[in-house]
Amino acid sequence: MANETLTDWDSGLLDCFEDASTCCYGFWCGPCLACTVSGRFGENNCLPLCDVLCYITLAAFGIGGCVPPAALSVRAAMRNRYGIKGSLCNDIFVSCCCASCSWCQMHRELKHRKKNTTVLNIQYNNIVSMQPIPVVPTPMMMMPPQPVVSVVSQQHL
Fold it and tell me: Which entry of 29, 43, 126, 148 is 20 to 30 Å from 17 by CA?
């Protein structure tokens, strides 16, 4: 990773109108979008529910505001995997202040990466022998013909 050049996100944090379907998905059903992004990224689909539980638990104790753990971890992992410029401090800020926009941005990034992905399938087949092993039939011993002896008994009644 040290030798790779870092790139920018494919779209900006507030570029919602670049992909209106993602924006609507995030607006009308944010948790569903977060679960979709998490699953497509290779994590558990239910991971973003940790964010919801975190907010509910802290609100129950009267504590407001927290860093959503799933949004932050997926964002940092995505940045690391794809070599995207940024910092952990920036990820924390974005995850706290604009979690919905962050999930939308990550969704657009995954769509962009999927569109530009080239899959190479290289297989090495070690072919040792494709011929069946020859089977030599065992020679049959020819027996000389034996005379047939029939015994007929006659019984007189």
Answer: 43
Rg, the chain, Cα only = 36
Confirm whether pTM is higher than 0.70. Answer: no
Residue 150 resides in a domain? no
| Model confidence pLDDT, tens digit, residues 56-90 | 887 787 777 778 888 999 999 999 999 999 999 99
Q: Evaluate whether residue 126 is within a structural domain.
A: no
Q: Is 83 left (phi over 0), alpha (psi -120 to 50) or beta?
A: left
- Determine contact, residues 118/31, Cβ cutoff 8 Å: no
Total count of domains within the chain: 1
Number of C-beta neighbours around residue 117 at 10 A:
7
Q: DSSP states of the chain as a string?
A: --SSPPB--SS-TT-GGGSHHHHHHHHH-HHHHHHHHHHHTTS-TTTTHHHHHHHHHHHHTT------HHHHHHHHHHHHHHTB---HHHHHHHHHH-HHHHHHHHHHHHHHHHHT--------------SPPP-PPPPPPPPPPPPP---------
Residue 155 within a domain? no
